[in-house]
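User: Can you help me understand a structure? I only have the sequence.
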Amino acid sequence: MLASVLHTVIIYAVVIFAMRLMGKRQLGELQPSELVTTFMISNVASICIDEPDLPLLSSLVPILLIAALEILNSTAAYYLPGYAALLFGRPVTVIQDGQIRQDALRHLRMTPGDLMEALRGKDIFDPRQVVWGVVEPSGSISAAQKMADDSPLLPLCDVCIRVPLQETYQIQELHLPIYHCLCLMLEEHFFDE
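Assistant: Let's start by predicting it. Here is the structure, written out as tokens:
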């Protein structure tokens, strides 16, 4: 009995160590390879705990090997952008100048209802109010809304990037999706294949 408890504690500690090695992410932010790795480690750990007759080393080696493969995979994705695009995918433009791109939705196997639900989660209720909408590789949506043309500074600007909010903290929250959309637009313009 004591050996079984010790076996479980060691497996638990090694799984925690392996997960910490792979880095912190919330479950909804995991890439497919990270999710598979998490499932595989949990499955191997449960087998190791359920079968106390297995030698401890034969239990720990697969867990550490899976963690090492995930670290190798993420390192390769960092240094090889083509591999990262293959592994994680690329952002896909689903709304352009207020028009839903049906071909992009079909490519993503996403319904217009799914898109509208994601937009409502961003407090956007009409896709015609979106200048640029992108589904990120993580599955989240980034959207840049059209703005009213009532700013007295607008005639003085070559380029104006505004968000539809007044509070500073809310404006700051919208900067990241705008940056993503701008980068995607530039990438598609200059590097579209």
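Now, to help you interpret it: The longest strand covers residues 130-135. The first helix runs from residue 2 to 22. Let me know which part you'd like to focus on.
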